[in-house]
Amino acid sequence: MKIERVELGDLPLEDGGVLEEAWLTVATWGTLAPDGGNAILFPTYFTGSHLSNARMIGPGRALDPSQWFIIVPNMIGNGVSISPSNASLRQAGARFPRVSVRDNVRAQHRLLTQVLGIPRLALATGWSMGAVQAWQWAVEHPVFVERLLPFCGSARCWPLNQAFLEGVRAALRCDVDFRDGAYEAAPERGLRAFGRAYCGWAYSPRFFREGLYRELGHESLEALLRAWEDDHLEHDANDLLCLVDAWQQADPSRGPPFDGDLAAALAQVTARTIVMPCTTDAYFTLEENALEAAMVPGAELRPIDSPYGHCAGAPGRFAAPMAQVEGAIRELLSG
Amino acid sequence: MKIERVELGDLPLEDGGVLEEAWLTVATWGTLAPDGGNAILFPTYFTGSHLSNARMIGPGRALDPSQWFIIVPNMIGNGVSISPSNASLRQAGARFPRVSVRDNVRAQHRLLTQVLGIPRLALATGWSMGAVQAWQWAVEHPVFVERLLPFCGSARCWPLNQAFLEGVRAALRCDVDFRDGAYEAAPERGLRAFGRAYCGWAYSPRFFREGLYRELGHESLEALLRAWEDDHLEHDANDLLCLVDAWQQADPSRGPPFDGDLAAALAQVTARTIVMPCTTDAYFTLEENALEAAMVPGAELRPIDSPYGHCAGAPGRFAAPMAQVEGAIRELLSG
Question: Is A320 on the interface with B (CB under 8 A)?
Answer without folding.
Answer: no
